Amino acid sequence: MKAFVTGATGFTGSHLVKALKQRGDTVVALVRKSSDLSRLADCDVEYVYGDVGDRAALTTAMQGADVVFHTAAYVELGIVDAARMERVNVDGTRAVLETARSLNVPKMVYCSTIGIYGDTQGRVIDETFQRTQQGFSSAYDRTKYLAQQLVDRAASEGFHVVSVMPSGIFGPDDPHFGPVVKTFLNGKLKVWAGGDRITGIVHVDDLVAAMLLAAEKAPRGEHYIISTGEMTTREMFALLSETAGVPAPAEIPPPVVRVVGNLLDPIGRLLQWQPPISRERVHYLYDRCVRVDGSKARRDLGWNPRPIEAVIRELATA
């Protein structure tokens, strides 16, 4: 099989490329001239250089592809370049869809997010849930929602595209929670915020397995929530502490976090600096709760992820 992958140098994309190569597939990856290729250093991959919105590059890269995996995204909370996020997440998805359709690529798998469902206010939902939140919690949520609308429209028009909606993606080389874990294991993380925050968890390699299964088995237009289970941040640190023998960090009282977020947010915007806490991040910590049920992928695709405790313990031993 010949696969084309966007976002191939990223966390999810690089794990996907390695899985494809391990099973003997040919892989073409879209990368920017400025991309760090170190995650793919040992992979025999054909590179096509261009931005995700570069239709000429996309046309070159998709020639003869059996499947397109679209994982490229601008993922960030807090102080973000909203215009750039829209170009990558919305316009980029539009370009990938339209190019794939014009070349009659047989299949596409789109890596979405559970964020498209909006704040479920603690209710556990599945793929049938209809978004009730008015407005959006972040530019990321908004742009991924708009991109999902493009994907669903293409499916309704006959294009074979399938969407996977991962929860929080974890793994030893996770660029988001990974540095936090490293600081913790080095004994330098003394405090943390939002211990009660519930997070859906999936190992990056289990997400990749779900994407491959979706490419092989899923009917056109299907959605699959990809989440192994959920834990609070406090439970995660308790597991990491038990595994590594490092004391769990103390929790900062929520009122203090809210005050600090309100103070640092305007400073970050003025200086174009990403503070460790901001109004948007405070909102995600305390005011927004998305809970999901990932049983459809297990049932319909035969997806069999590792236990949730193993995902977290691996972070402390990798």
UniProtKB/TrEMBL annotation:
Residues 4-226 form the NAD-dependent epimerase/dehydratase domain. One of its GO terms (cellular component) is cytoplasm. It holds the Pfam family Epimerase. Transmembrane segments: none annotated. It comes from the Bacteria. InterPro entries: Epimerase_deHydtase, NAD(P)-bd_dom_sf, NAD(P)-dependent_oxidoreduct. This is NAD-dependent epimerase/dehydratase family protein. It comes from Thermoleptolyngbya sichuanensis A183.
